[in-house]
Structure to design on (289 residues):
DNA sequence: CCTAACTCCTGCATGC
DNA sequence: TGCATGCAGGAGTTAG
């Protein structure tokens, strides 16, 4: 599940290897990968031919590649979902089993390939629009700033958090409130802030909520410095290499192992049909569940 | 308007 | 061995 740091690693790779190049041809190998491109796969392929990739941008877990050439004002917008990869591969190298979209460039250099085993991810071409937080592709105008953006205002998000009627982990995962956080970094931020996932957001103090946002920014910054979190070959940079942050996780996936702070065994609980990992001593559950 | 359940998908681990 | 089941889960959609 690529989250903000993993997507940023991919963005940097695309910026280095694909930005500035002209697309010669696009091949959609699986229609589901462009299901959010409503005009369909043929339209996706057709409107990208001879366009130039002018920049690689990111907000939260979304990537977009701005387009130049004869026209401007649009971009390829994408989400990696759970298993999506953007790979830079030499022309002629064997197709990946789950190759979904191939970008061939006019310079005959390496291809850009969207590979996605579980097909939760996808790409689309969309217009750029002016939103409250700058110029972004229309489909993601509703998401909030991410904690590593220059314009991220923690005090505003703290007030929004405290106004919500939900539990704190749901709020962390709500991309319209604060973008970029998924299950891994939600659990890590909660562990650092010593908060149980089921704590009601409305009852958080301002210092608690502020500390939680700080923890989220810190853990994602540290992960980025190590190339992101990888459990296996699914989460890789554009060269297919894994990051090392999984060695630094304190809560996520650590069930049965001692808490790095207090030694108590980390516990796994079901949450939203998935998992939450936490230290039952450092992160006591709220009284009323 | 707000919140939460549902749904999409494939590969691997597990159990009988 | 082989089949069924569970699990990984982001976010748009739908229901309440």
């Amino acid at each position: 599940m690529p989250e903000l740091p993993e997507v940023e690693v991919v963005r940097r790779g695309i910026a280095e290897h694909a930005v500035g190049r002209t697309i010669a041809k696009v091949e959609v190998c699986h229609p589901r990968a462009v299901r959010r491109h409503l005009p369909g796969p043929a339209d996706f392929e057709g409107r990208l031919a001879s366009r130039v990739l002018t920049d690689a941008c990111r907000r939260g877990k979304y990537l977009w590649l701005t387009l130049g050439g004869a026209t401007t004002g649009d971009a390829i917008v994408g989400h990696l979902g759970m298993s999506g990869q953007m790979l830079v591969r030499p022309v002629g190298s064997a197709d990946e089993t789950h190759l979904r979209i191939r970008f061939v460039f006019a310079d005959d250099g390496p291809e850009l390939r969207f590979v996605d085993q579980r097909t939760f991810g996808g790409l689309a071409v969309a217009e750029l629009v002016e939103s409250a937080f700058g110029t972004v592709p229309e489909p993601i105008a509703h998401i909030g700033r991410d904690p590593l953006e220059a314009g991220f205002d923690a005090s505003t998000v703290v007030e929004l958090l405290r106004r919500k009627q939900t539990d704190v982990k749901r709020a962390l995962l709500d991309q319209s409130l604060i973008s970029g956080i998924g299950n891994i970094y939600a659990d890590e931020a909660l562990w650092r802030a010593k908060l149980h996932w089921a704590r009601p957001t409305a009852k958080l103090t301002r210092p608690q909520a502020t500390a939680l946002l700080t923890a989220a920014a810190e853990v994602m910054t540290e992960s980025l410095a190590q190339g992101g979190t990888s459990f296996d070959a699914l989460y890789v940079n554009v060269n297919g290499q894994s990051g090392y942050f999984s060695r630094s996780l304190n809560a996520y996936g650590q069930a049965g192992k001692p808490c790095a702070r207090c030694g108590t065994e980390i516990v796994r609980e079901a949450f939203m049909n998935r998992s939450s990992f936490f230290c039952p001593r450092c992160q006591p559950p709220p009284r009323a569940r």
The CA atoms of residues 137 and 234 of chain A lie 26 Å apart. Residues 32, 35, 81-83, 98, 116-120, 164-166, 170, 272-273 of chain A lie near DNA strand B (CB under 10 Å from a C1'). Residues 154-278 of chain A form a domain with the Helicase, Ruva Protein; domain 3 fold (CATH 1.10.8.50). The mean pLDDT of chain A is 92.
